[in-house]
Amino acid sequence: MEMTLLLLLLCARVCYTAANSRLRKFSVIQLRCNWTTALSYCKSNHSTLATMYNQEEYEQQKQLLRNGISNAWIGLNRQRYRLKWSNGDPVNASAWPSLPSENQYSYCASMHTNTTWSLCTDPKIFMCYGNGPGDSFPQYRLIKQNLTWYEAQNYCRYNLIDLVSIMNERQKEEVKNCGMNSTTPFWIGLLYDDWEWADGGKSAYRKWSTIAPYPKENILRNYTYLMKSLEDIFTVSLKNKCDGAICSEGSVRVHIIREKKIWEDALNYCNKHHDGLLRFESAEDLSAIDQQLKGTNLTGPVWIGLRQSSLFGFWVWTNGLSVNPEDWSNWEGGIWPQLPLSHQCGAMETKKGYKWVDQDCLSQLYFVCEELI
């Protein structure tokens, strides 16, 4: 096996890359192999087989498929049934004791007077959470449109933040109260399936072909791939071979520190415990971790790794890279803070768009660290 893998590694080549972000990149490898060999290759040369967190990342990975590579492995594979919130929040399993009685297909939770489980492909109305005009923090919103759970997830992520997640009894009552006008159960963001990503990413994004996969007890379709010609994710057995594999590189994990500090102390904390304050050097950087930033339930701005030079007045990231007004930036209202200023540091709003604002560096704010993985 080791010799076979070595020969494959020597013959394989990177065909295309996408998502030009320091935080998250995808590469497609031309390599005729099964899923486990593809995973070994990615781990040896990149990071792991690719994870998808949203529709945008799905589109980025699909664009990598070119002539000679009509299908490629991705990281989604069968493990064991687990509970997952759509936005990646941790699930308190003891709070949801009534699980589906049979481990078949994928099941999603809906609420009305009680919590019930249905096939995720059933159409239902659903509840999102997100910020509307004038909202200072996310609100619950019942959407009276019948969609599958996966379609509802995409709707919420595109228009608001995500399907609603419930972390305690108070939130459960709030969700029930918001859904009182409904006469039928509505989807919430709780998923129960046996699919996991190879990198351990807490992504509940799924884009199955037509219907959810068959139970593994009946047909051994335990690994997933993309096809250039079709707009879905497909499942096959380990015996199948694909033309290539999509690897991910430069992934990052975000840590929101709920302890208020001045900017300098926040920087020192992140440097000591992680890999520094969070930096965005391109729109792709922001897109790469959009899903991790959603659902923070914080109000007001948080420190990021951006500050103004006290000597020259221009804005600079903590790695020394300056923010050029002619390049990409994400300032609130598109307005570059007026110069010269002094003792000003960069913060990020915690609602959709994650716009930058300038704050006095001595202000006490929560902050965001990054950890490169």
Overview of this protein structure:
The protein has helices spanning 2-11, 35-45, 55-63, 149-159, 169-178, 263-273, 283-288, 290-293, and strands at residues 13-18, 25-33, 48-49, 71-85, 107-111, 115-119, 124-130, 139-147, 162-163, 186-197, 223-227, 233-236, 242-249, 252-261, 302-308, 315-317, 344-348, 356-360, 365-372. It has 373 residues and is α+β, with helices and mostly antiparallel strands. The protein folds into 3 domains: 13-79 and 197-249, Mannose-Binding Protein A, subunit A (Mannose-Binding Protein A, Chain A), CATH 3.10.100; 81-194, no CATH class; 252-372, Mannose-Binding Protein A, Chain A, CATH 3.10.100.10. The strands form 3 sheets. Strands 1, 2, 3, 4, 5, 6, 7, 8, 9, 10, 11, 12 and 13 form a 13-stranded mixed β-sheet that branches. Strands 16-15-17-18 form a 4-stranded antiparallel β-sheet, covered by helices on one side. A hairpin with a 3-residue loop joins strand 5 and strand 6. The longest helix is centred in the N-terminal third of the chain and has 11 residues, at 35-45. Keywords: Disulfide bond, Signal.
State the main characteristics.
about 375 residues; alpha+beta; Mannose-Binding Protein A, Chain A; 3 domains; 13-stranded mixed beta sheet; four-stranded antiparallel beta sheet; about 20% helix; disordered N terminus; CTDL_fold; signal; disulfide bond; C-type_lectin-like/link_sf
What is the strand and helix layout of this fold?
Blueprint: H1 2-11, E1 13-18, E2 25-33, H2 35-45, E3 48-49, H3 55-63, E4 71-85, E5 107-111, E6 115-119, E7 124-130, E8 139-147, H4 149-159, E9 162-163, H5 169-178, E10 186-197, E11 223-227, E12 233-236, E13 242-249, E14 252-261, H6 263-273, H7 283-288, H8 290-293, E15 302-308, E16 315-317, E17 344-348, E18 356-360, E19 365-372
Parallel strand pairs: 4-13, 7-10
Antiparallel strand pairs: 1-2, 2-13, 3-13, 4-10, 4-11, 5-6, 5-10, 7-8, 7-9, 11-12, 14-19, 15-16, 15-17, 17-18
